[in-house]
Specification:
By secondary structure, this protein is of the alpha+beta class. Helix content is 50%, strand content 20%. The two termini are 26 Å apart.
């Protein structure tokens, strides 16, 4: 076997080619980091938004969109009294009648953007246990409570949604009473307000859904039985986790397009890298033939070429990891139902590392084998 120092020396023989190899590998791996982080971030926020203990009652035929659903207001009391096994505190069952509405919201700086508004009552905090008040207080009539990432979704400055700031919806001015968090869920991008206020302003006399929290996550059958017994209410039950799971499937094509875009750009960089390796290895055919003449096998020489390629791509992978940490980690990305944060979890890091290894291994094999394929007498006479 050729010594490892031989591969290192050849790698630094031409600094310009080394820069090209490293830069190409860094570009490909960075794109993989970005695509993987985007997909994992969107998938995680949608999967984490649903609680296994929560079940959503929707209007029949509106299982795919809570915003299009219509449920009678009295369903809240009927569900609280007719469903067994509900969680409760101080005798108050965890049943939240909610209105979900996408509408234009204006902030104090004059900017207007579409916001996902959720009309709720205080019982919503008993159902959505992920919600924690960070600043201020729960909103009374004439007030709103903003998720900690709502400012990013709206495209405004963070100060525009701080406690004490004012927002305008349907010509009515509301004061921001508080800021809440609901880690890794779409709720962090929403604006919560008093349900009666929202229903009055949008002239709606029905709810979007009723969310109930079961004492046991395995009690879905009790809620499903209630919807089948009360045919007059025209309800359908779906677990909150299943609802957001369907949303994740809906956004599947978008995630696939992210991978496709990254793959197309990466393919160009890969083919460019292959051409560079062909040119680099072809100029050393006589050198490789000389090594064969002094006793080194073609396998040993090919292994040294692979080492050389791996060193370059792993250097590029390290550069890509640094760039991803600086440019990607912590970036908030808004989409139609919320905002998710790019990160570099273990799965994303492993995907990038494996890509770098495969680039170095597979990229060196075709040009290396071609350069070693020529008969020894012909290779020794090559220029």
């Amino acid at each position: 076997m050729l010594p490892f120092s031989y591969a290192v020396r050849n790698l630094f023989r031409d600094p310009w080619k080394l820069l090209q190899k490293t830069g190409g590998a860094a570009l490909v791996v960075f794109l993989i980091f970005a695509a993987s982080s985007f997909n994992e971030g969107m998938k995680e926020v949608l999967s984490a938004s649903g609680s296994e203990s929560n079940i959503i009652l929707l209007g029949a035929g509106s299982e795919e969109s809570v915003e299009r659903s219509e449920v009678m207001v009295q369903t809240v009391e009927q569900a609280a009294g007719g469903i067994r096994g509900l969680e409760s505190r101080l005798g108050v069952p965890a049943v939240s009648g909610e209105v979900h509405y996408m509408g234009n919201l204006s902030t104090g700086d004059g900017k207007q953007a579409q916001a996902l508004l959720r009309g709720v009552t205080p019982v919503a905090l008993e159902v959505h246990r992920e919600v924690r008040l960070l600043e201020g207080s729960y909103p009374a009539s004439g007030e709103v409570m903003a998720g900690r990432l709502a400012w990013h979704t709206l495209g405004v400055e963070e100060e525009a949604l701080r406690p004490g700031a004012e927002v305008v919806f349907e010509g009515q001015t509301f004061v921001v009473a508080g800021i809440f968090e609901a880690p890794n869920t779409v709720m962090e991008s929403e604006i919560w307000m008093d349900r009666s206020d929202l229903m009055t302003l949008i002239q709606r006399d029905s709810l979007s859904c009723v969310v109930v929290r079961q004492a046991s996550a395995d009690d879905f059958s009790k809620v499903d039985l209630f919807t089948k017994q009360r045919l007059d209410l025209e309800l359908v039950a779906i677990s909150e986790s299943d609802y957001y799971g369907k949303l994740a499937q809906f956004y599947g094509p978008i995630r696939a397009m992210t991978w496709l875009t990254a793959a197309l750009v990466a393919a160009g960089a890969i083919f460019g890298g292959l051409n560079l390796l062909y040119a680099s290895f072809s100029s050393r055919i006589r050198e490789m033939a000389t090594l064969q003449a002094v006793g080194y096998s073609r396998g040993a020489i090919l292994f040294s070429l692979i080492q050389e390629s791996l060193l370059a791509t792993l250097m590029g992978t390290l550069v890509a990891a640094v760039l991803a940490t600086v440019l990607l980690e912590g970036i908030n990305v808004p989409f139609s139902v919320g905002t998710f944060q790019l990160g570099l979890p273990l799965k994303v890091i492993l995907t990038g590392m494996i890509t770098g290894l495969l680039l170095g291994l597979i990229g060196a094999l075709p040009p290396g084998w071609r350069c070693l394929h020529a008969p020894l007498p012909v290779a020794l006479r090559s220029s």
